[in-house]
Request: fold
Amino acid sequence: MKHALAINGGAKSCEVSWPSWPMWDDLERQALNAVLESGKWWYGENVQRFERDFAAFQDARYSVSASSGTAAQEITLAALGIGPGDEVIVPPYTFIATASAVMRVGATPVFADILPHNMCMDPADAARKITPHTRAIMPVHLGGYIADLDALGALCNEHHLALVEDACHSWGGKWKGKGTGAIGRMGVFSFQVSKNIASAEGGIVLTDDADLAEIVRSISNCGRTTGGAWYDHVRIGTNARLTEFQAAILNAQLTRLEAHTLRREANGRVLNEGLRQIPGIMIGQEDPRITRRAYHLYPIRLDLEKLGVTRERFVAALNAEGVPASNGYTRPLYKLGVFVNPPEVANRRGIEHDYTQDYCPVCEQICHDTVWLFHTLLLADIEAMHDVVSAVRKVIEHADELQG
Reply:
């Protein structure tokens, strides 16, 4: 059939009106108005409520909110005493903050490759990257997949390292029945506007360690201590406090997170069943230890050699069919300018690692062949998931129209 693909003039195969994000209603409006009219805009009851309720939601004993996920990561590393001369093992397939937080405290990020089936840190490669300078391993639960916390936890125990979960894609995720972010020594979440629970910006640190929680609180609150005098600053801190406005939005958002998580998970199962039957694409493997997956992203890997097209052409065609898709991360972190550009390299203090020599083959391939579908798509109805499968199948079957 001539011009079968919409990108070439054919009919669009998916006419779904996808859910917009962020979602909000009168609950957020009323909560914001209540804060506005109270005159109590700063670090009060709404913040305390959200910290308590989110910690309970993720099965953690303690939590400390922050102004962003990035700030939460930096404070977490500082609370662990990580600094110049130390190394932290991180994956190269993640947002820059995972690695830049390490550099901001003066330590060196060391990149361990990822696994091809879930895009999370490969424990075997992490083991190979451990040196006498390693202080922590910080896996990322990419897209809602959960890194192998059993293997990584055992590795940290063996070498006396801190396991820090970057759970910024894993709100509501559970590993063997326990919430992510509450399994390692500490865990970090983001509430940036694109995230599954959002307040424009915001973050939180979870831990079961009371002493660490107090240090995190102190660092985020200008070096003060709980119960201490207002003008008594006992350590070098920063101002990373969440506002009452942000917390009011998050309290409202949290009332929907359970239902949204379950809906995304149910729709993800429909996509899994349909897409795994289409030749030329690969979807992630399910790990039975993941007892609930957050689905911030739904990644699809392409067999580009078999299809004979580029990932970019495939994404353009899928978008034209009415399915919003993205190229995702197109380079490993170690190829970004902050790691390889001479001016940025010269600005580093105490970090001697030559990142131009880094090479993580699985990450390199995934940066080349992976397509992302976003969590908002997974909030549509079940029929829309069947439309997504049909659209992907159509693009695959007519891939020859994309060549050249």
About this structure: The chain has a mean pLDDT of 96. Residues 244-275 form the longest helix (32 residues). The CA atoms of residues 222 and 239 lie 5 Å apart. The chain has two domains: 26-253, 257-402.
